[in-house]
Amino acid sequence: MFQDLRHSNISKFQVSEFILMGFPGIHTWQHWLSLPLALLYLLALTANILILIIIKQETTLHQPMYYFLGILAVVDMGLATTIMPKILAILWFSAKAISLPECFAQMYVIHCFVAMESGIFVCMAIDRYVAICQPLRYPSIVTDSFVIKATVFMALRNSLATIPVPVLAAQRHYCSKNQIEHCLCSNLGVTSLSCDDRTINSIYQVLLAWTLMGSDLGLIFLSYALILHSVLKLNSAEAASKALSTCTSHLILILFFYSVIIVISITHSATMTLPLIPVLLNVLHNVIPPALNPMVYALKNKELRQGFYKVLNLDNKGN
């Protein structure tokens, strides 16, 4: 009887805050990770702001392809800023506490930005498909209006589709444990602390991944399969090489973005034995692409390189 009463009291108790413990298994020396993470965050902000300045100042870059790149830069900065200040606060000041509303809000924003990045990659793939496979129709199809409509559609799709993630997480009952072995409020990490059934949360997480990420990845692969088919039919090797070179940087970023997501999904099944790996990958996935994207585009794109030299008043002879 007393055990039933105690169980009833525990089940009625609701924690008021979560404690983000940081990187599991390395709590004693995890503060040393703050330096590389801070540098990555600073690089992400600086590089993406520079990309936006270059696109704004260079009239030759006022094209749909670069507009999408600018939108990607804004999304990257938003994603990195959603998590990095809190992670650095944990590592530098041991500010591990986070309120439930703040945690669920972070969960929602992370899902929104990750889905938005995936959506922008789709828009960029469609842009390249039309430019290479339908070059004569490109100016009439991929217009400024198309960029605005595609961006608004992706923003609405992602903001609405991800609402159930924090809503379902907030409906769980957190009655005993409140320590999250993570640096951020991931859906699976938070709901694993709930005292009631969280099957619906796991189902919706999988459904969201397959419907949003799966469909995006399918469209991207279809676009590049059609691009490759079109390029292989070109008689000129030089023309084929030039057409593919415009897609190389895009493909590098897409492969990195989706490969890490797949690896994170696989390693989540091994969290009991190696909990550090999925947590570390999750954090790096949210901070490395924002730092990597502008550098890859700047290195592979001649127009962006020239704009970079011009903004920084560097000599660009021979480029």
UniProtKB/TrEMBL annotation:
Cell location: Membrane
Main subcellular localisation: membrane
InterPro entries hit by this protein: GPCR_Rhodpsn (IPR000276), GPCR_Rhodpsn_7TM (IPR017452), Olfact_rcpt (IPR000725), OR51/52/56-like (IPR050402)
Keywords: G-protein coupled receptor, Membrane, Olfaction, Receptor, Sensory transduction, Transducer, Transmembrane, Transmembrane helix
One GO term of the biological process aspect: cellular response to lipid
GO MF annotation list: G protein-coupled receptor activity; olfactory receptor activity
Summary of the function given for this chain in its UniProt record: Putative odorant or sperm cell receptor.
Name under which the protein is recorded: Olfactory receptor 56B2
Organism, scientific name: Vulpes vulpes (Red fox)
